[in-house]
Structures are given as C-alpha cells and as structure tokens.
Design a protein that fits this description.
Elements: H1 3-6, H2 27-36, H3 39-43, H4 62-88, H5 92-96, H6 100-109, H7 119-131, H8 144-151, H9 155-164, H10 179-183, H11 208-218, E1 222-224, E2 227-228, H12 233-255, H13 261-269, H14 274-284, H15 290-315, H16 317-321, H17 335-352, H18 356-381, H19 386-392, H20 406-419, H21 422-432
Antiparallel strand pairs: 1-2
Length: 440
C-alpha cells in the first residue's frame, strides 16, 4: 500500500462532485464536524459504556468514551506523523501525512456509532437471539452469509453500515464520508463467514460492495475469499480505543467504590519507571482528593502509552503498508507498559465486568432487547396482523420494513433496535408490556 492512495478525500456517493481544491477546512475536518452534529452521535450519550448510566456519580457513556478516544487518537496520530516526517520530508507523501490526525480523530469519533444499547451485552443479545433464541426459525430462509451476518452481529460492521447505507429518504452514500475515514474504522476487514469464535467482522453482505469500492480506490489489497488487509490507520484508532476503555474503566470503578484508591494507585503507577513513581508520589502529596490523584496518574499513563504506540506504529510502518497483520499496538509496547496494561485488563475482567451493577445492566438489557427483537420481528415478518400494524407505526420511516427480501426486512429491525438508546429501549419495553401509558 502507498500513503498517496491511502489518504483520499473522495466521498462515498458523491464521487462526481469531488473537488480536489484546497479549502479552509479539509474534507477530513468536515468529516469530523459532520459526525459531531449528527443524530446517531448525539444518541451515544444515552448508551451504556460499561457501568449503568449515571445517578449521583458520573461515569462514562458511549458519547464521552468516543470523545476521549478521539482526543487520544488525534494525539497518537500526530506523534506518529512527527516520527515519520523526517523520512518523507519534502515529498508529496510528507504533505499527505499531515492529514492523518484528522482522519484518525474522526474514525475514533464514530468507531462505536453502530453499537446497540446496553453495552457489549447488547451485541451478544442480538447475536444469540438468532443463534439460540426464536431467530433460529429464520435460518433456512436466509443464505449462509446472511445468517452469519445476524448470528455474529457486530457493532463495528453496523457502524460501517450506518455511515454508508442509503436509508429511505437519505442521500446516496449515507453520511457521504471520505474513503479514508471509512476504511479507518474497519477493524476486522473480512466478511461474517470469517467471524470466528469471537464473532468479529467488518461489514455486512449488504455493504460489501461499498467496502470493496473503498478498498479498491485506496489500494487496500484483497487477501482472497472476502478477507482484506487493514488500512494502517486502523491500528491507531484501535490503540486509542484500547487505551481509553481500559484505563477509564479503572477510573470509573474507583469512583464507584469497586476498586480502592490503593488498588488503583498500584495499577496506574505500574506504567512508570521507579524513579518517576517517586516523583509522582510526591506530587500527589499536594492533592487531598483521591479522585484527583487517580486522574493525575491516569493522565500520565495515557500519555506514556500514546507515545509508545506511536513509536511502534512508526517502526512497523513498512509491515503495515505491506498488509501484514501486526496485532494491536498495545500488545507491542515496551515491556513495562505492556505488563501494566495487562494488569489493568486482568483486573477489569475479574473485578469490574462482573461487578453487581454491571451484571444487572446485562441482565436487564438482555431481557429488554430479547423482548423487543421478538415483537418487532414478528410485526415485520407478519405485517398483515392487527397487532403488527400498530407496532409498525413505532418504527421510523427510514427503516424499510416492507423491503422485497427477508434479509432486508430483518435488517430494518436491527437498524431500529441498534439505534435505540438505553432509555428509549426501556420505555418501549414498558409500553409494549402495558406498564407505561402517556399522561392523560
């Protein structure tokens, strides 16, 4: 792959209007602004990240997480550019690489756009509705590829659909994002038939043509049988996401009293050499608030990982351009940082993700989404019933519930459900159960 092709400001669906002239805002900056002002992005404020949406203590939701990932991604991309700049000084490639901070910041901003309500358990609930629940009855009515799309439902693939699909009443190309931004969000550039045990893939069969068009334009090679190389900037987006969710989950758990200050102190100080730890301990002596102490250590830990991931990216540049899969950048950091990161990850799995409040959200979300899936799917597949006619009035017009194929009609339900906020899904669940009525 070559940077002069990988960085392209052509817009999906608007290729005929492409204008290469320099403007006040680059097209990549326009991508960022377009996302910030979009409805799907605003809805992230009412979608669970890990912990229940805030009561008296504020924790991260999908919106704040995405903003932080974008900030970290921009910084990491800038550091990577500074490391690569001497190599390309005075060349066309050098000027093109100036764009990568804006591309990565936008990719980070929309990387979770397609995630359903109730955190990652929402993805599992949708998948298992097909693989273990009432959706099993649809298997013989879909092709193997279509069935794999649903039984391995993946938020990353749904983000690509949300950004590229022409929903009813919308323009061609969906959000009409630049090719480079679209390629930079696809962490798993292969079809659902290669999803494997973890159920990870990058695009539904309905959007494969879009991805093939993007990859061909950018010179991303096909590795055969529906598998492609990654766009190199995916690694920066992925690393920013990995860093933020791991460290910020530790900070949130401290605020909620799941982890003690001493436990968090031990985890976060592990990111620094011994001599720096001593200086930080002295600096924290000036902070009386434990939350401020944790924030101080968290900031330093993120900064250390950002710098080292940028180093790894620059050192691995040739391998990444060759299409070799190098693994997550956080796994390739220097040993001290990698070990500290793994310690945070292990603590998250043993102490945080199984915490009572987190499990309660998973249980409630599973019940709510399973119920909504069953009833909305029944309405779409049997629209002639009176109950179906009433329920179909609740589905926004942009979702084509009367599409000609079974696959598209099922997708219309998933589009609606994955776009819901936690609050909306709970409210609809209550209304369908007759537990909530409009005020008289």
């Amino acid at each position: 792959m070559d940077w002069t092709r990988l960085i392209s400001d052509k817009r999906l669906g608007l290729e005929e209007f492409h204008d290469p002239r320099t403007q006040i805002r680059s097209d990549f900056q326009r991508d960022y602004d377009r996302l910030v002002f979009s409805s799907p992005f605003r809805r992230l404020q009412n979608k669970t990240q890990v912990f229940p949406l805030p009561g008296s203590i504020f924790v991260h939701n999908r919106l704040t997480h995405s903003l932080e990932v974008s900030s970290v991604g921009r910084s990491m991309a800038r550091e990577a550019w500074l490391r690569l700049a001497p190599k390309y000084d005075g060349t066309p490639t050098g000027r093109i690489l100036l764009q990568i901070p804006d591309i990565v910041a936008t990719a980070c901003l929309c990387h979770d756009l397609g995630n359903p309500p109730f955190g990652h358990s929402g993805e599992r609930t949708i998948s298992t509705w097909f693989s273990e629940g009432n959706g099993l009855g649809l298997r013989d009515r879909l092709s193997p590829r279509q069935w794999a799309d649903f039984s391995s439902f993946e938020g990353n693939a749904n983000s690509f659909r949300l950004l590229t699909h022409q929903f009813r009443g919308r323009r061609k190309g969906g959000f009409a994002m630049t090719y480079s931004t679209l390629a930079s969000i696809v962490k798993y550039p292969w079809t659902s038939l290669h999803a494997g045990e973890k159920g990870k893939f990058g695009f539904f069969s309905s959007e494969e043509e879009h991805y093939r068009k993007v990859s061909a334009e950018l010179g991303i090679p096909s590795l055969g049988d529906g598998v492609f190389a990654r766009h190199p900037l995916v690694y920066l987006m992925e690393a920013a996401d990995d860093i933020c969710y791991q460290v910020m989950d530790i900070e949130d758990s401290h605020r909620l009293g799941i982890l003690s200050t001493e436990e968090v102190r031990a985890l976060l100080l592990g990111f620094f050499p011994v001599e720096q730890q001593a200086r930080m301990q002295r600096a924290m002596g000036y902070l009386d608030d434990p939350n401020e102490q944790v924030g101080y250590m968290r900031s330093g830990a993120i900064g250390a990982m950002v710098g080292d991931c940028a180093r790894v990216f620059a050192e691995k540049e040739e391998s990444l351009l060759a299409g070799e899969h190098c693994g997550p950048l956080v796994r390739l950091m220097e040993p001290r940082l990698a070990e500290a990161y793994e310690a945070c990850s292990a603590t998250a799995w043993t102490r945080i993700y199984c915490a009572p409040d987190v499990v309660d959200v998973d249980i409630a979300g599973n019940r709510i989404l399973t119920y909504l899936m069953g009833h909305l799917m029944e309405a779409v597949l049997n629209p002639e019933k009176n109950s179906s006619k009433l329920l179909l009035l609740k589905i926004p017009r942009q979702y084509d519930t009367s599409a000609p194929t079974m696959y598209e009609r099922v997708q219309s339900v998933l589009d609606h459900i994955s776009g819901m906020t936690d609050v909306y899904a709970l409210d609809l669940f209550r209304k369908l159960n007759g537990h909530s009525l409009p005020a008289v």
